[in-house]
Design brief:
Length: 141
């Protein structure tokens, strides 16, 4: 006796896709703004002294964070920049935080781990509806 199993899935319609693109754009802007603040902090803004000019990894990380977050904020070169930022945060987690303790909650690496995964998500799914990358892609076609 043969039994056929069928699955039904709810497909995303145009309205759902529209809201997904908008939501992705909003998350991209908020995350990149928060990340920009971390880059500014490494350059001496807010409550911390600036990383000494040219020092590794502090000053270079600050430059990468500043430039990368500004590009992600406007949605320009989102995928390659997101890969770079994801790797930067993975480096920060494994080299700076992880030697202190095994778990992110113990080694104060939650933020680095979260940023790494969120930027990896942007690298895979793109910038969303409202981004310069999207505008550039529309003009080409």
């Amino acid at each position: 006796m043969t039994q056929t199993v069928t699955t039904t899935s709810i497909e995303a319609g145009p309205t759902t896709a529209k809201w997904q693109g908008i939501a992705l754009s909003v998350v991209r802007v908020v995350v990149s703004f928060l990340f920009l603040c971390h880059g500014l902090q490494k350059m001496g803004f807010f409550d911390k002294p600036a990383a000494p000019f040219g020092t590794w990894p502090g000053w270079y990380a600050g430059v990468i964070e500043l430039v990368g977050s500004a590009l992600i904020l406007v949605g320009l070169f989102t995928r390659p920049v997101a890969v770079l930022l994801s790797g930067t945060m993975a480096y920060a987690y494994f080299v700076v935080h992880q030697p202190d303790a095994l778990l992110p909650l113990q080694n104060k690496g939650e933020t680095a781990a979260l940023y790494s995964w969120v930027f990896l998500l942007f690298a895979v799914v793109g910038p969303g509806t409202y981004a310069l990358d999207t505008l550039r892609r529309r003009r080409k076609s």
